[in-house]
Specification:
There is one protein chain. This protein is α+β, with helices and mostly antiparallel strands and about 300 residues long. It has one domain: (Glycosyl)asparaginase (Glutamine Phosphoribosylpyrophosphate, subunit 1, domain 1, 4-Layer Sandwich). It has helices at about 20-40, 45-60, 105-115, 120-130, 140, 145-155, 230-235, 240-250, 255-270; strands at about 5-10, 80-85, 90-100, 120, 175, 175-185, 190-195, 215-220, 225-230, 275-280, 285, 290-300, 305. Strands 1, 2, 3, 4, 5, 6, 7, 12 and 13 form a nine-stranded mixed β-sheet that branches. A four-stranded antiparallel β-sheet has the order 8-9-10-11. α1 (about 20-40) packs antiparallel against α2 (about 45-60) and α8 (about 240-250) crosses α9.
Length: about 300
């Protein structure tokens, strides 16, 4: 028995703003990513490998705000964050504010396995990656015209902005993050999250994605969680760990814990977004309080399912 779920961000994803071609492109990309994780689980690979593989595909796709599709900062650069955690050992690795790293989730894995630390940031994290022969790309690899136009639209405004889309009649608000959670045939859980952050962000802003317990958490006693939303709120609510705690200490099911945090706790103080979660029995929850969330899921005995709205 195994299960896997992924997300590609959440927010104001109104169906009337999507052409059939645009919707199919997202659906196909989600299916490709979850298939990468599914083939590992099907062949009795680990949940950690499956999560990393799925997120790597999403990082390589310019449709999503992570890796190749990362948004621009105010300084016209890319600063990416990622984290990875395994439920059997509670080991975790995370990276924040790195540039030119092709796949930040792979650097997070290296930090978890080849350092004594959990979170590395900026130049130090990049140096660690080079030391361990992680793949880097030049600025041209990360350049995307849509992302560039998004920055130009808001660069003279104060503050960072969510993942705006300038090519629709009404600018949509998207929380650009990708993530995956999985349960393998050995009963082990894993979770991972990766993001390019906010358009026009300044001063080294970091959201919830690389923060263990906020944007990512996995514990074999409870569940695996990856979040996507307005990072500041998810940090303050310690969302991923809160769901695990509600299960462990209050005895809630995964579904009830997710509902309480996403549709009650977060809503009460303005936190918008969603998450994906899997428990120790392979049950999957994909709650969100925004208009939509790019998501896909599969179990050992079901076909790939993808959805946006």
């Amino acid at each position: 028995m195994y299960s896997i779920a992924i997300h590609g961000g959440a927010g104001t994803l109104a169906k009337h703003l999507f052409t059939p071609e645009k919707e199919k492109a997202y659906q196909d990309a989600l299916a490709l990513a979850i298939a990468a994780g599914d083939v590992i689980l099907k062949n009795k690979g680990t949940s950690l490998d499956a999560v990393q593989a799925a997120i790597t595909v999403l990082e390589d796709c310019p449709l999503f705000n992570a890796g190749k599709g990362a948004v621009f900062t105010h300084d016209k650069r890319h600063e990416m964050d990622a984290s990875l955690m395994e439920g059997i050992s509670l080991k975790a690795g995370a990276v924040a504010g790195v540039s030119n790293v092709k796949n930040p989730i792979q650097l997070a894995r290296l930090i978890m396995e080849k350092s004594e630390h959990v979170l590395l940031c900026g130049k130090g994290a990049e140096d660690f990656g080079r030391l361990n022969k992680i793949s880097f790309e030049d600025d041209a690899y990360f350049f995307d015209e849509l992302r560039w136009n998004q920055l130009l639209q808001v660069i003279n405004e104060d503050g960072a902005h969510l993942d705006h889309n300038v090519n629709v009649e009404i600018p949509d608000k998207k929380f650009g993050t990708v993530g995956a959670v999985a349960l393998d045939v050995y009963g082990n859980l894993a979770a991972g999250t990766s993001t390019g952050g906010m358009t026009n962000k300044r001063w080294g802003r970091v959201g919830d994605s690389p923060i263990i317990g906020a944007g990512t958490y996995a514990n074999n006693a409870t569940c695996a969680v990856s979040c996507t939303g307005h990072g500041e709120y998810f940090i303050r609510a310690v969302v991923a760990y809160d769901i695990s705690c509600l299960m462990e200490y209050a005895g809630l099911t995964l579904e009830l814990a997710c509902k309480k945090v996403v549709n009650d706790k977060l809503v009460k103080f303005g936190g918008e977004g969603g998450l994906i979660a899997i428990d120790t029995k392979g049950n999957i929850c994909l709650p969100f309080n925004s208009e939509g969330m790019y998501r896909a899921w599969k179990t050992h005995d079901t076909e790939i399912n993808t959805s946006i709205f």
